[in-house]
Amino acid sequence: MKQIDFPELNALSFDALPRGWVFYALSGKQGYLYAGYTSRLASHLQYLKQRDDSQEMISQARQLEYLEAKDGFTALVHFKCFLASQAPAYQYQISLSKEYVYLALDARRYPFVSIQEHTNDDWQYLGPFRSRFFLGDVIDTLSRILKLPFCETGSFPCDKFDRQICRGWCLALAPAEASRQVQDLDKLETLLKEAYLHPNNGIVEMIQRERDKYFNDLEFARADLLDDEIQLLSRYREWLNFLYTAKALNFEHEELTITAGQLARVRTEKREFHFPVDNPEYRENEYLAYPLNMVDEARIIYDHLREKTDAY
């Protein structure tokens, strides 16, 4: 592996770091401190340096070692094989995934759609998603297009209802409105499932048609705005497809074994490694919810199997 004195990293040397997938390890005077894998080493290390929970580790780091990899799966293999023989002092004290978030849905509970950090309640959970801001943009976009709830205050009804950009689903929760509005909540439940749980719901295609109309009418500014929405919802659709398959990712080959979206065994040039596999129990409302600390590995494996299965 290539080695760099970590305290001497500056803006110029950060720019010189590789831009593709790498496995990396940070070490101090007493041995390894932390290891990981990333496709953006420079920004990843800068992010580590800014985190409150990594300050003690960063202050002890003396050397950066990294090994460039041809893809994410190769970097993951290097990482897991490394941890099979090393025990970095801060490896399990610093969790980059703890800031990931879940999307929570419940058509009969205010605020109907929310962003949450765990799956301990009784909502219908999806995720996790790596960015709270990305998920917020998805909710905002779908709420504007379909007039679905995106309640940002603690009281209701809010000014969105007054401005007629929301249908006032919250009115069904008021006792005086219950008998008249109960069917609206049935409708809301259907709409939430269609918008958030069905990858092929046609919403992206609908926006694409609208975008093409603006483009053909030479309204390029409006077309550009819809390009952003198409890209955003396409990313959400791609992640949703992944969540539907993550827990059932199983694959067996002489070179590797995948179990429940995790690398259980791999054969390298030097030896064969076996890794523990977590099999948590999921509640019915966690059907599309994957554990925070397992989702990055599962996504890399998902992409790898889609691209490379024919090669095995």
Secondary structure layout plus pairing:
Layout: E1 2-5, H1 11-15, E2 22-28, E3 31-38, H2 41-50, H3 55-60, E4 63-68, H4 72-85, E5 101-105, E6 113-116, E7 124-129, H5 132-146, H6 159-162, H7 178-196, H8 203-216, H9 220-246, E8 251-252, E9 256-259, E10 262-267, E11 272-274, E12 288-289, H10 295-308
Parallel strand pairs: 7-12
Antiparallel strand pairs: 1-4, 2-3, 2-4, 5-6, 5-7, 8-9, 9-10, 10-11
Give an account of the 3D structure.
- It is a single chain.
- The chain is of the alpha+beta class and 312 residues long.
- Among the domains are: 2-94, GIY-YIG endonuclease (3-Layer(aba) Sandwich), CATH 3.40.1440.10; 247-311, no CATH class.
- The protein has helices spanning 11-15, 41-50, 55-60, 72-85, 132-146, 159-162, 178-196, 203-216, 220-246, 295-308; strands at 2-5, 22-28, 31-38, 63-68, 101-105, 113-116, 124-129, 251-252, 256-259, 262-267, 272-274, 288-289.
- The chain has a four-stranded antiparallel sheet.
- The radius of gyration is 23 Å and the shape is globular.
- The mean pLDDT is 88.
Quick one: CATH class of one domain?
Answer: Alpha Beta
Q: What is the distance, rounded to the nearest whole angstrom, between the alpha carbons of the first and last residues? A: 28 Å
Low-confidence stretches: none
- Tell me the number of helical segments per DSSP (H or I, 4 or more residues long): 10
> What fold name stands as the CATH topology of one domain?
GIY-YIG endonuclease
Residues in helices, as a percent range:
40-55%
> Taking Cα atoms only, what radius of gyration do you get, to the nearest Å?
23 Å
Order of helices and strands: EHEEHHEHEEEHHHHHEEEEEH
How much beta, percentage-wise?
A: 15-25%
For the record, what is the CATH homologous superfamily label of one domain?
GIY-YIG endonuclease
Molecular shape: globular
* Mean pLDDT across every amino acid position: 88
Largest sheet: 4 strands, antiparallel
Q: Class by helix and strand content?
A: alpha+beta
How many beta-strand runs?
Answer: 12
Strand order of the largest sheet: 1-4-2-3
Please tell me the CATH architecture of one domain by its name: 3-Layer(aba) Sandwich
